[in-house]
Design a protein that fits this description.
Number of strands of chain A: 11
Shape of chain B: elongated
Number of helices of chain A: 16
CATH superfamily of one domain in chain A: Amidase signature (AS) domain
Number of helices of chain B: 16
Strand order of the largest sheet of chain B: 2-6-7-10-1-11-12-13-14
Radius of gyration of chain A: 21 Å
Strand content of chain A: 5-15%
CATH topology of one domain in chain A: Amidase signature (AS) enzymes
CATH class of one domain in chain A: Alpha Beta
Strand content of chain B: 15-25%
CATH architecture of one domain in chain A: Alpha-Beta Complex
Structural class of chain A: alpha/beta
Oligomer: heterodimer
Distance between the termini of chain B: 88 Å
Largest interface: A-B, 44 and 28 residues
Number of strands of chain B: 16
Radius of gyration of chain B: 31 Å
Distance between the termini of chain A: 18 Å
Shape of chain A: globular
Number of domains of chain B: 3
Chain lengths: ~475, ~475
């Protein structure tokens, strides 16, 4: 199976046309989508027209980008002009944005061919893509298992050959964890590196859009296109990522957080992390374990994360009242509903259980009398977390860590146990809380299921992480394995 | 028992920035519904706010004029509540770190009213009830229009003090140019927090908050009404409940909207979409250095430097457009007294006659035209009657004064040759009068002058005509 860069080169070298490549992707979609359900919607006719349009530009000699004409998907919480963007929620069903997210717009200008909107946990709240209003996505490696989440559709689409690359979003691990579960690569950029304009907010201070692809080189190419300052997002950074600069893995100082290797981690995952460390050592990097200054850091990070994310979500999602767009509950049979009743019905019927759980938690931690005990305390913890990481990066260039404590679990296994679901995020949320970049890459298998690792760096050190991961993928073939789709 | 009224005010003022506080939409009043909206101010999913720094400049300007400390670090907070005029279901405001604190405004008698704080926030949209369709329509044009809320300390003791403060506040803000302060259009709104307590008591009583007054008169009446209501309630053995009340100006009474038990929990928290706003010393100093002159300072300059009467200075500064017209005109013509006279007597009369607004009138009269007219009058080129007519033409038809006078041949004639010529004709045509005059009838002289003036269409210098006629008649 080709990578996105290989596909783009084939188009430029006239070995295949964009419309032909698109039909290949459609064949995969036709074959697999019924089993996988990676998309909430596929736009076949629009994609065909788009592929012809991009091909015409390429034929006219326009230099769009190395990814021009390559079929791709966008997570359903990233606004696409004229294409329904529902966040996999009933409450936003039928909502068609009048504007593109900046990331989507930049990809469109670079010649991307949008195939469809990728399935996800409703409003990106979840780690298994089981809470989508449009049905569960299944893991291409084992259809009885979850693809991870919340960008489960984005990861599964790449793993099943239904897109060459996709955009996901990562609030507490939502790009990296499905990448690990589906055996694909992904980047969670530094907070502020990619504009959030058009990303339907879950937790504004944590959300970042990032790429998912077969290998890290594809992801880096996508990141190059979507990153960069945007005047429409006040939190967008002017810092340069300097992608492509050479990085020598030899002499790279890599830290392994002992805490992450000792608590709640599955044996197969632990083996993969240790083997990965060994490969980096073979490449000349120094790898050593370290302790965070704060014991049980992951616990504090997870607690502070849930307070922060739910608080912001409770405010961000308040606008979905069915008045201007999205789901409005039909009027009751016995007459007209008053305003409060209309709101209550639209929101009670529009949101799923996980979203409601988080909105209620968020409203609670912000309410008068509890604000100091929860929200304010979480912000203090967040500041301490950033200090912890700053200390770590005085000693190390890169931190190597598992992405999730286990490989993909069975469908329904954690649905009724929200706390267990949350524990799945224990290695990822601390990265979002500190606004750091992280690259996830497949690094081995456990009982036939893919297992990924993540490389974490200080802010705007994407290039170091990408080059280290590329060196790793140059010596390994985990990212080249194809999912059996059974 | 004797009671003392205690009042604090929350005044909302819409800022006169060209664009909204978090997007590039226009802020003009009276546009077609929902024509000044974009994804940001209509709260579409995925849209993000970007702060308009002009708002901080205006807010700091108001704060400096009201003797406030300006906070260098500003944070925006979300105030969460559900209402159809609030499309994001939260208002971006400042709770924890407002831009200004600890100021005051001096009212009559030298009393200082404390300003607790001034914060920046966005306005909400407007609900328009359609009685024919029995539904409510929403206009989002006002959504995101920048506001400052000026919160006073509970320093007022009477309705008179409240209105005095509001009038002064309005004048200050108008002269700073930060707002047009129109109560009727809602660009200035005041909420009244009022309680009563036995005279001499140290503790405050239970207060109520009153909304929806749309004139200073209504505010005066609302304060009086509420003080009386609370006093009577307590005298009758009742207790005031903390609540929000709505003033009904037609009924001249207020009605309970919601009590404290039903008060909303706004779940304030810092808006994660906006970075903290740090104001530099240079930014504040630049504002301080370029503070527009206040009305009070203008009044003392008009009476001192320009030699106007206190009354005239008062009339000229009562409304800012009039004052602007005066200052620009007198700068152009170099004759402030004449400019003041024409504006106060003639223009104000025209405004009354045409039932025009001052604002509109001052838009119609260009200072350049007025200055040119004054130069013609003081230079003896036209007489005052012509001047008055020309001003009316400027006012009503935007006439060019020079053109107006020239086209109608209204210039004063000092041309001796022309006058002599006319006198010749008059004497020829009125031999009888000439004879009468020579026979000693003084009245005939007046008649002859009148005839000559008529021929000259009233534009001749009467003195010159007199002199020339006398000369011709050999006197």
């Amino acid at each position: 199976m080709k990578t996105a860069l290989q596909a783009g080169r084939a188009i430029r070298e006239r070995k295949i046309s964009a419309p032909e490549l698109l039909e290949e992707t459609f064949r995969n979609i036709d074959e697999n989508e019924k089993k996988i359900r990676a998309y909430t919607r596929v736009f076949k006719e629009e994609a065909r027209a788009r592929a012809r349009e991009v091909q015409a530009k390429i034929d006219a000699g326009e230099e769009l980008s190395p990814l021009a004409g390559v079929p791709m998907g966008i997570k359903d919480n990233i606004s696409t002009k004229d294409f329904e963007t529902s966040c996999a929620s009933r409450s936003l069903s039928g909502y068609i944005p009048a504007f593109d997210a900046t990331a989507a717009e930049r990809l469109r200008e670079a010649g991307a061919v949008l195939v469809g909107k990728c399935n996800m946990d409703e409003f990106a709240m979840g780690g298994s893509t089981e809470t989508s209003f449009y049905g569960k996505t299944r893991n291409p490696w084992d259809l009885g298992r979850v693809p991870g989440g919340s960008s489960g559709g984005s990861a599964a689409a790449v793993a099943a050959g239904e897109a060459f690359y996709t955009l996901g979003s990562d609030t507490g691990g939502s790009i990296r964890q499905p990448c690990s579960f589906c055996g694909v690569s992904g980047i969670k950029p530094t907070y502020g590196a990619v504009s959030r304009w058009g990303l339907v907010a879950y937790a504004s201070s944590l959300d970042q859009i990032g790429p998912i692809g077969r290998d890290v080189a594809d992801c880096a190419e996508v990141l190059k296109i979507i990153a960069g300052h945007d005047g429409k997002d006040s939190t967008s950074s002017k810092a340069q990522l300097n992608l492509g600069a050479e990085v020598d893995v030899k002499g790279l100082k890599i830290g392994l957080p002992s805490e992450y290797l000792s608590r709640g981690i599955d044996g197969g995952v632990l083996r993969v992390v240790k083997e990965t460390a060994g490969i980096f050592e073979e490449m000349g990097a120094s790898v050593s374990e370290f302790d965070f200054k704060t014991p049980r850091l992951a616990d504090y990070a997870a607690a502070a994360y849930y307070v922060t994310a739910c608080a912001e979500a409770s405010s961000n999602l308040s606008r979905y009242d069915g008045v201007k767009y999205g789901y409005a509950a039909p009027p009751p049979e016995d007459g007209e509903a008053d305003l409060a009743e209309q709101y209550i019905r639209a929101r009670s019927e529009g949101f799923g259980i996980e979203v409601k759980r988080r909105l209620m938690l968020g409203a609670f931690v912000l309410s008068s009398g509890f604000y100091d005990a929860y929200y304010r305390k979480a912000q203090k913890a967040r500041a301490l977390l950033s200090d912890e990481w700053a200390g770590v990066f005085e000693k190390f260039d890169v931190v190597l860590s598992p992405v999730a404590p286990t490989a993909a679990y069975r469908l329904g296994e954690n649905v009724d146990d929200p706390l267990k679901m949350l524990l799945g995020d224990m290695y990822t949320v601390a990265v979002n809380m500190a606004g750091l970049p992280s690259v996830a890459a497949p690094a081995g298998f456990s009982e036939g299921l893919p297992v990924g690792v993540q490389l974490i760096g200080k802010k705007f050190s994407e290039n170091t992480l990408i080059e280290a991961a590329r060196a790793f993928q140059g010596r390994t073939d985990f990212h080249l394995k194809s999912a059996p789709i059974v | 028992m004797d009671y003392e009224t205690v009042v604090g005010l929350e005044v909302h003022v819409e800022l006169a920035t060209k664009t909204k506080i978090f997007c590039g939409c226009g802020t003009g009043f009276g546009a077609e519904p929902n024509t000044q909206v974009c994804p940001v101010c209509s709260g579409m999913p995925g849209s993000l706010p970007v702060f308009n720094k002009e708002v901080a400049r205006f807010a700091a300007l108001a704060g400096l004029a009201l003797n406030c400390e300006i906070n260098r670090r500003n944070v925006f907070d979300r105030k969460n509540y559900f209402y159809p005029d609030l499309p994001k279901a939260y208002q971006i405001s400042q709770l924890y770190q407002p831009i200004c604190r600890n100021g005051f405004l001096e009212i009559g008698g030298g009393k200082k009213i404390g300003i607790h704080e001034i914060h920046m926030e966005e306005d909400a949209g407007k609900l328009l009830h359609d009685p024919w369709e029995d539904c409510s329509n929403i206009d989002y044009n006002r959504c995101g229009v920048p506001l400052i809320e000026i919160v006073s300390e509970p320093d007022f003791r009477s309705a008179g003090e409240v209105v005095d403060y509001l009038e002064r506040l309005r004048e200050i803000l108008l002269y700073l140019g930060v707002s047009d302060c129109k109560m009727q259009e809602g660009s200035m709104r005041a909420d009244i927090n009022l309680s009563v307590r036995p005279s001499g008591a140290a503790e405050f009583g239970v207060r109520t908050e009153m909304k929806n007054m749309n004139s200073f008169k209504a505010i005066y009446r609302a304060v009086e009404f509420e003080a009386k209501r609370q006093t009577e309630l307590i005298d009758a053995g009742g207790r005031v409940t903390q609540e929000t009340r709505r003033w009904d100006d037609n009924k001249e009474a207020s009605f309970s909207m919601r009590s404290k038990e039903n008060a909303q929990d706004y779940r304030y928290f810092p808006d994660p979409d906006l970075l903290a706003l740090d104001l530099s010393e240079e930014f504040i100093e630049e504002i301080r250095a370029n503070m527009p002159e206040s009305a009070a300072s203008k009044r003392s300059r008009f009476t001192g430097e320009l030699g106007l009467s206190a009354y005239d200075a008062g009339v000229l500064t009562a409304e800012k457009p009039l004052c602007d017209l005066f200052e620009r005109t007198s700068a152009l013509c170099g004759n402030p007294k004449e400019a003041a006279n024409l504006i106060i007597v003639e223009i104000c009369r025209l405004i009354k006659e045409d039932a025009a607004t001052t604002e509109d009138a001052c838009r119609r009269v260009a200072p350049e035209s007025l200055a040119a007219l004054i130069k013609m009058i003081t230079g003896g080129e036209i007489n005052r009657t012509v001047g008055k007519d020309a001003l009316a033409a400027i006012f009503r038809e935007q006439a060019d004064p020079e053109e107006y006078v020239r086209e109608r041949n209204l210039l004063i004639v000092n041309d001796a040759g022309l006058i002599d010529e006319v006198i010749d004709r008059v004497l020829e045509a009125n031999e009888k009068s000439v004879a009468d005059f020579r026979a000693g009838k003084e009245k005939a002289f007046g008649f002859l002058v009148g005839q000559a003036m008529k021929e000259l269409k009233g534009t001749a210098n009467p003195g010159a005509v007199n002199g020339a006629l006398k000369k011709r008649l050999g006197q």
